[in-house]
Amino acid sequence: MVNSYRQSNIFTAALGGILASSMLVQAAPLTSPLTQIVNANTTTTATTTYASGNAPFAGGAAYTGPSGAYPVAQIFPKYAALYNAKTGDHFQSPQGLVSRSPTTGGADISALVTFEVPAEYSSNWCQVAFVLQNADSEATGSLQAQLYTSLAPAGTDVASWPSGNLRDQFLGNIDIVVGGEASFEAGSGPAATSNGFFPCSLISGRVYGGEIVPRGDSVKVSWPACNDGINIFVY
Length: 235
What we know:
By secondary structure, the chain is mainly beta. Helix content is 7%, strand content 35%.
């Protein structure tokens, strides 16, 4: 279910404008307004420290998350790309997209995303979530997707990034809600068991990658990649 306080804060933050990441400060008290951290699509560097492949749910780890807490920040991907399952093509895109159709001959499109959780949040709880709030976001078909971790986060152009999508650990299935927050299908994976919660310390101060994959015979979900859709809430 969508937290009404969270919904209100997301809407307020959108109306108030997006705060620049340079304004980021130590996590404030839980009653403070929600801070949106938006990272434009940029290339990661060779010196970047990556989180381990299947963190933060290594070995199927499950967490309970905070009790009665409100989110203090919402982190969007630093980098987003699309992967074509038929051709193996990988390309940077400002638009997130997952799609599958019986008419495309297996040319499924999945979204590759790269997050950076600031080290300031190392003592907080994080929660991976998928929220469609933007007027430019849309979804049709099964309204279902799967979440995976990546062996290495996409962060460079196709000429220097490894071939394939580097898919790693399955995290769970989600049922997408247009105008709201997706729900995890119970028992479908470690993230579903934890409702997406994990200690931020497992990836804070590092770069972490994941993949959103279409589920069902026919589905199409699109969103502004660094302004809606997949994100991490901080508590």
